Amino acid sequence: MRQSAQKTGSLRMGWAEVLTTARMRAIEAAAMASGAVSGAELMERAGAAVAGAIRLRWPRPGRALVLCGPGNNGGDGYVVARHLAQAGWRLRVLGMDNTPGPDAALMKQRWAAIGAIAPLTLDQLRRKPADLCVDAIFGTGLTRAPKGEIAAILAHLGQDRATELVAVDCPSGLCLDSGGFLGRPREAATDELRARLTVAFDSPKPGHLLERGPDCCGELVIADIGLRRWREAAVAPMIGVAPSFDIPDSRRPAHGTAALDKARAGGGHKFTHGHALVLAGGFGHGGAARLAARAALRAGAGLVTLGPPRAALIEHSGPPDALMRRGVDDADALAALLADARISAVVLGPGCGVERAAALLDPLLAAERPCVLDADAVTALAARGPGGLHPACVLTPHQGEFARVFPDLAAKLAETSPHGPFYSRIDAAREAAARSGATLLLKGPDTVIAAPDGQLRIHSAFDVPWLATAGAGDVLSGIIAGLLARGLAPLDAAATGALLHAAAARRFGPGLIADDLPDMLPAVLRDLGA
Ligand SMILES: NC(=O)C1=CN([C@@H]2O[C@H](COP(=O)(O)OP(=O)(O)OC[C@H]3O[C@@H](n4cnc5c(N)ncnc54)[C@H](OP(=O)(O)O)[C@@H]3O)[C@@H](O)[C@H]2O)[C@@H](O)CC1
Ligand SMILES: Nc1ncnc2c1ncn2[C@@H]1O[C@H](COP(=O)(O)OP(=O)(O)O)[C@@H](O)[C@H]1O
Ligand SMILES: [K+]
């Protein structure tokens, strides 16, 4: 029996709630309606948090330029200016001559009592150099692509790499529900705003974690402005949880990975920890399945069997010796094997060949066994259509495979529009999960995982670009299957799998090849206290 599987430690990786902008507004409104806190107080806290984060990183006061937009994001900017001025910074504040809402108007007035406000124009922006520029132009209230003078200001800021940029809530122009820039192509551009630091409030928004967001936000700080009570009281489910995408945070509750503890609790024998079957392809194509099988073992499945056609068994005679091999020639052979109820998870797709994957899909789906459908199995689904899967199927397409199975959703995802919010990876994954009836993990540095009932997880891992290496996806399938075999629910298995996968890559560092990933898992699990 596997020693690690006996342990009942707790995984302490924290998961943060992610709020859409609409939900964030609703929570703020509920807090203000309760009478316990006013909008002005929230704005004071928000601005003070931004100023505090700046002072922590740039302790020596310098010259700051604060750009204040027409709404409450601009209101935060006036608060930041006041706090920095009090801390000895030399300030230039550029603002608009509109009449903002009452809270922002109050903050503007408080700033005006101690300093000047020049017009927010490109000419003023260029007039004097600054060490630091605070972008408080647009936040969650952005509804359309910036135009005219403000667009020119943002383009200038995007090209200016000399001044440190600090974004209030987000770099202006970023759609916080999708991570795209309104009115601009979805792919990376050279003149996007790239903040060194972004301070957002209460919880991350999807746009901080998806698409262009992580790159353009720079360091992301989530400031507590005292809304927790109203967030937790919200009736409608949150959009999901995302990991703190760098460092495990032992201070936060471990709801995201608690299921892993449950799955491993209680000792038991090897079958207690599940039996994963990894179906392999024909002779000469077995590497992908072997990677998945090794990963399933390392993820803690009690047993793992590799199932190539009998003629290809010889290819798999090397290590690991812990791996069992069993010839699976065709659909009948698979149906017979799955009569063994102890097989608790199956991987179909990596290196399988589309024809074989298509043939094995029917008996696999008929057995209603938790399974991971990856690579060639996803392509096989494209031909037959994604309907008729079940929630214990975890579909793991990358963007290209997703487009094969859900071409209409992929087309929407590529669209750009002058109005927000953009159709997001969250929308696409949710729609695909609902349509297929399966749990869907849309791969990428910003992995999105959706269950058919609408539950959602985001796993953002932009700090490990070396994970984009051949075979990494096969390892991910194996990890998820290992966790499914151990009894994790599909959404938990997929989300925890993505998390362990990236953590293994992070721990290994650059130079990683997919073969290195499974063997990093024990150290990762140990780090997490599992
Ligand atoms: N609620 C609270 O108490 C708290 C809120 N907080 C802060 O408030 C921020 C949200 O504030 P917000 O809702 O006022 O939106 P914001 O991002 O300032 O922009 C909206 C303004 O921009 C305008 N506008 C939009 N698009 C435009 C365009 N393309 N070109 C030109 N104008 C455009 C839009 O005008 P309209 O669409 O009505 O024409 C409106 O005037 C949030 O990110 C956080 O920083 C914190 O203080 C915590 C407490
Ligand atoms: N730039 C990136 N940063 C972090 N992770 C990435 C990046 N690109 C891809 N990934 C992850 O690497 C894996 C690649 O899987 P996949 O595209 O199926 O590759 P393969 O087919 O070669 O195994 C996925 O888990 C994906 O989320
Ligand atoms: K901003």
Topology:
Layout: H1 3-6, E1 15-17, H2 21-33, H3 39-57, E2 63-68, H4 72-86, E3 90-95, H5 102-112, E4 118-119, H6 122-127, E5 132-136, H7 148-159, E6 164-168, E7 197-201, H8 206-209, H9 213-217, E8 219-223, H10 228-233, E9 241-243, H11 258-264, E10 275-279, H12 287-298, E11 303-307, E12 324-325, H13 331-337, E13 343-348, H14 354-366, E14 371-373, H15 375-384, E15 393-395, H16 399-405, H17 407-414, H18 425-436, E16 439-442, E17 446-450, E18 456-460, H19 472-485, H20 490-508, H21 516-527
Parallel strand pairs: 2-3, 2-5, 3-4, 5-6, 6-7, 7-8, 10-11, 10-13, 11-12, 13-14, 14-15, 15-16
Antiparallel strand pairs: 1-9, 16-17, 17-18
The structure holds ligand NPW, adenosine-5'-diphosphate and potassium ion.
Main attributes of the structure:
ATP binding, YjeF_N_dom_sf, alpha/beta, UDP-N-acetylmuramoyl-L-alanine:D-glutamate ligase, nine-stranded mixed sheet, seven-stranded parallel sheet, 2 domains, Rossmann fold, binds ligand NPW, 15% strand, 41% helix, binds potassium ion, 530 residues
